[in-house]
Design brief:
The complex is a heterodimer of chains A (571) and B (327).
Chain A: E1 10-21, E2 24-36, E3 41-45, H1 52-59, E4 68-76, E5 79-80, H2 86-92, E6 97-100, H3 104-107, H4 114-125, H5 130-143, H6 149-152, H7 162-173, E7 180-184, H8 192-209, E8 212-217, H9 220-226, E9 229-234, E10 237-243, H10 244-249, H11 254-262, E11 280-292, E12 310-322, E13 326-330, H12 337-344, E14 352-357, E15 360-361, H13 368-371, E16 374-377, H14 391-401, H15 408-421, H16 438-450, E17 456-460, H17 468-485, E18 488-493, H18 496-502, E19 505-510, E20 513-519, H19 520-525, H20 530-538, H21 542-551
Parallel strand pairs in A: 3-8, 3-9, 6-7, 7-8, 13-18, 13-19, 16-17, 17-18
Antiparallel strand pairs in A: 1-2, 1-4, 4-5, 9-10, 11-12, 11-14, 14-15, 19-20
Chain B: H1 2-29, H2 33-37, H3 44-54, H4 60-72, H5 86-121, H6 126-140, H7 143-157, E1 170-172, E2 175-177, H8 182-215, H9 218-225, H10 230-259, H11 262-267, H12 273-282, H13 286-314, H14 316-323
Antiparallel strand pairs in B: 1-2
């Protein structure tokens, strides 16, 4: 292999990936070209379906059938690899190209220790004896920042937290010292503080090992943090490419401009009018919820004698929400946000404490949830709509159940009206959920929530499964519906920028405890609690990232968030 | 782990007590046990003596307690028809059933496993399409029809294999085996195939479906992206994860192979527990029926227990979560 110093590690030219469909070939990737040099991080950004993951899959020859590379070249250090046989590709995958996938919870085989998976990978590529491979595995774990590597090499994946598992995944990806690392949404499934750590780890590996990195993500914040250059993809094509700072500050293309404008920033001040003197519609007083952990000595008769381990999901939380206002709860996974959402929506009865909506206490007969005054919008619009029901029936169900419509024509009119309210065609009521995109489904979920004429809606991560541009539309819709109907929202989110934009007041949860609560501007501008400060510092933000990078590598992100703990619940 | 096993054993004991209660009720109240033993000529005094001897004059609770106590020591009374201890009758015929069941379970596991894995790894090959089509026949044809068909073909038309019985047997202590003689082996082939066909197709289709599902998982994609050899991905990573749900079904199927060998044993006149049960039903031999009930229940409970413990061996997530330990 003849190689010059400035030759790119990866060079893609005119790559097209096609999927045959009934109506001709669908081009998932349409004639893209890009280069990555040694030690360079190239970010590929785009919304779902833009073809960015497909590009990564094409490089490693892992395109799912029936998709195929129909034209173009992929060169790794000058050697053309796109026509490689499966056997030849196996010597490239892992050995010369490492891959990191999005979700560390499902990337590791649950039945084998991480040591076994590491050793297997090392020995598949390097001529090492078992003992030497094990030593290398421990060394790798240390390099990716896993403490007590000698001991933990024999642990199973479920014994690690999400962030730690992603470190293990990275160790596996670099196990055989590859030249190129393809990271496909490596931080999207992680909490912000952990996300910052993983980003820092990737950056340092890239510098230390001179890795070329193809970073695929939908998150401009992550790109701004570590990428040198960025390629913006839309519908299989590269719209625009260039150094990150140029693209973010002076995007040339409309698509890029729209994409960047849609990203909410935690630094843009809230534009919501400050409401004062509103009556409190929702009161949550001292709620507490423990979950019993499995295990221990649990004979039915002897249970009382043995100590049962509990995990406190919600610990003495109180807050109230003024009529027509939005109260946001933020916190990382496991902080009890969703448990509170379920309690407030009446889906779960708190062990102690009370929740009252409009003066009526939840859990008593004729509870507001039953009367339709409280509704809920869930995170995943793909799972929260019954796939076998038509949209019209999904939205009409609460109307029929609560007797809000007199006859069929009346109900049909209400459904059509609701669909118009969420800016969908009334004709959509004759179709099924799978015919709609994620954003449209979330609108349908909102229409369903509105159908019982609620005063209060609990929104549990309503936009975290959506692309940024769609997120902006859904947030817009929520805000205008609130203004129109005087709705009260409880917004659960891990996205601080969304919270700053949408909420009037915000509560910060940590380990089930409400550590800070106040008006949104006050909390974002003058956070009091150390945890709130940490969350704000870790949140990925484009402008912040540039400021940081210009100042120089002063901030050590690895220390943010402190020690990671093991997940308490494992099964 | 120990806590879990103890709890499961405790539950198993409860299940067995419930089954024993049903068996007891069957013996005690389905027909008068005295009537079955005594003839018309038996004198009233003798009847009273018999009643006392059988404990039928004592309160029902005590009768049940003594039924359980005797059951624990393997005493389920005397067969009405054969006038022999029921336990001994079952023990005599058990080896025949167990040999047949194990032979067909082995056949089902090996063939079903191999075919299932093939169908999952090569979903588009012509052989897969052929196997999948034929397997429908295996699932839908009733056992007796398959048995009769096999007898017709291999015994009547071709004359290769015997159509009934176990062939020559050899006694090893209390165990009689047909597996040490040529005629024994020749005799077991047809019934074993008949009995295993349904289980085989079931396991095959299950393994195929589960394995296809596992192959779609991200950790398999990640294993491929690491350049691991094909064999290690398929048989190390994918197969082991496939086994977790398959173990339950395979275990329960082994239980039902033994319990529902009745039809096959009848078709092939196999001298096992199943045909004993059929005979006892025909002659209303209540103690045999009750003992058979308890025996089959015990079998299922034990197999279930083993399956649960196997889960632990295969899946480390359970070991930690249920065992209460943390690393």
């Amino acid at each position: 292999m003849t190689q010059h110093k400035n030759d790119p590690v990866l060079s893609i030219s005119n790559l097209t990936v096609e999927f045959p469909t009934a109506s001709g070939a669908f081009k998932a990737v349409d004639g893209i070209s890009l280069d990555i040099a040694k030690g360079e991080v190239l970010g590929v950004i785009g919304e779902s379906g833009a073809g960015k993951s497909m590009t990564g899959a094409a490089v490693t020859g892992l395109i799912d059938r029936p998709g195929r590379i129909s034209s173009g070249e992929i060169r790794l250090n000058g050697e053309r690899i796109d026509g490689f046989s499966e056997a030849a590709l196996r010597t490239v995958r892992g050995r010369r190209i490492g891959t990191v996938f999005q979700d560390p919870l499902v990337s590791l085989n649950p039945l084998y220790t991480i040591g076994r998976q590491l050793i297997e990978t090392i020995r598949a590529h390097l001529p090492l004896k078992a003992k030497a491979a094990r030593a290398r595995a421990i060394e790798l774990l240390r390099e990716v920042g896993i403490g007590e590597a000698e001991r933990r090499v024999d642990a199973y994946p479920h014994q690690f937290s999400g962030g730690m598992r992603q470190r293990v995944v990275i160790a596996l990806a670099i196990a055989a010292d590859p030249e190129l690392l393809i990271a496909d949404e490596p931080t999207s499934a992680l909490d912000v503080s952990v996300q910052a750590q993983i980003v820092a780890l990737l950056k340092s590996l890239c510098e230390k090992r001179g890795l070329a990195v193809l970073l695929i993500t939908h998150d401009m914040g992550v790109i701004a943090e570590i990428a040198d250059r960025v390629a913006v993809m839309n519908r299989g094509r590269i719209v625009e490419t260039g150094p990150v700072a140029d693209i973010v500050r002076n995007p040339r293309e409309d698509y890029t401009r729209g994409l960047i404008a849609a990203i909410p920033s935690i630094h843009s001040k809230s534009t919501r009018p400050v409401l004062t003197g509103a009556d409190h519609l929702v009161r949550v007083e001292n709620i507490r919820q423990n979950f019993e952990l499995p295990g221990g000595f649990s004979f039915p008769l002897l249970r009382r004698l043995s100590p049962v381990r509990h995990i406190t999901a919600v610990d003495d939380v109180s807050f109230s929400i003024g009529e027509g206002q939005t109260f946001a709860l933020v916190g990382e996974s496991g902080s009890g946000k969703s448990t509170i959402a379920r309690i407030v929506a009446g889906l779960l009865r708190p062990q102690t404490g009370r929740v009252a909506v409009g003066g009526r206490r939840m859990g008593e007969s004729n509870a507001p949830a039953v009367g339709g005054a409280v509704q809920m919008v869930f995170q995943d619009p793909y799972a929260s709509l019954n796939p076998r029901w038509r949209i019209g029936d999904i939205i009409a169900e609460p109307i029929r159940r609560l007797g809000l419509g007199q006859n069929r024509a009346e109900i049909d009119r209400q459904v059509a009206e609701l669909l118009e309210r969420v800016r969908l065609e009334p004709q959509a009521r004759h179709r099924y959920p799978h015919e709609f995109s994620g954003g449209q489904r979330q609108r349908i979920a909102i229409a369903r929530a509105l159908s019982s004429r609620p005063r209060f809606i609990v929104c549990d991560e309503p936009t975290s499964a959506l692309d940024v541009s769609v997120q902006a539309q859904v947030l817009d819709l929520m805000a205008s519906l609130q203004a129109e109907f005087g709705l009260t929202y409880l917004l659960i989110s891990h996205n601080l920028a969304v919270v700053r934009q949408m909420a009037d007041r915000v509560g910060v949860l940590k380990g089930g405890v409400l550590v800070e609560e106040g008006a949104v501007e006050q909390v974002f501008e003058r956070p009091q609690h150390a945890y709130t400060k940490m969350l704000l510092a870790a949140a990925p933000d484009i402008r912040e990232a540039f400021r940081r990078r210009e100042v120089g590598p002063g901030r050590d992100l690895t220390t943010i968030g402190g020690e990671e703990t093991l997940p308490l619940e494992a099964g | 782990m120990t806590g879990f096993v103890l709890r499961r054993i405790f539950q198993s004991v409860l299940v067995m007590l419930a089954v024993a209660l049903i068996a007891f009720i069957v013996i005690r109240f389905v027909g008068d046990p005295l009537e079955s033993l005594a003839s018309q000529e038996t004198r009233l005094e003798d009847r009273a003596v018999m009643m006392q001897r059988l404990g039928l004059d004592r309160p029902v609770v005590f009768q049940f307690a003594s039924f359980v106590r005797r059951g624990l020591s393997g005493d389920f009374g005397i067969s009405y028809k054969q006038q022999e201890p029921v336990t001994r009758m079952i023990a005599e015929r058990l080896p025949a059933t167990l040999e047949l069941a194990l032979a067909s379970a082995a056949l089902a596991l090996v063939l079903g496993g191999l075919l299932g894995i093939h169908c999952a790894l090569k979903p588009e090959s012509p052989l897969t399409h052929f196997i999948m089509t034929v397997s429908l026949v295996g699932v839908s044809l009733p056992t007796f029809l398959i048995g009769i068909g096999l007898i017709y073909l291999f015994s009547v038309e071709l004359g290769w294999l015997p159509s009934f019985g176990r062939g020559e047997t050899v006694k090893l202590g209390w165990w009689t085996t047909g597996l040490l003689t040529l005629s024994g082996w020749r005799s077991i082939i047809l019934p074993a195939i008949t009995l295993s066909l349904f289980q085989m197709t079931l396991l095959m289709r299950l393994i195929r479906a589960e394995m296809l599902e596992v192959l779609r998982q991200d950790y398999i994609r990640f294993a491929r992206a690491r350049g691991l050899p094909q064999s290690s991905i398929h048989f190390g990573h994918a197969l082991k994860n496939t086994l977790v749900p398959v173990i339950t079904v395979a275990g329960l199927q082994l239980g039902s192979v033994i319990a529902f060998a009745v039809v096959t044993e009848t078709v092939f006149q196999w001298p096992g527990v199943g045909s004993l049960f059929i005979n006892s039903v025909q002659s209303v031999d209540v103690p045999v029926m009750a003992a058979y009930l308890v025996f089959i229940a015990l079998l299922f409970v034990v197999i279930n227990l083993i399956v649960d413990i196997l889960y632990y061996a295969v899946d480390p997530r359970l070991r930690i979560a249920r065992g209460g330990g943390e690393t």
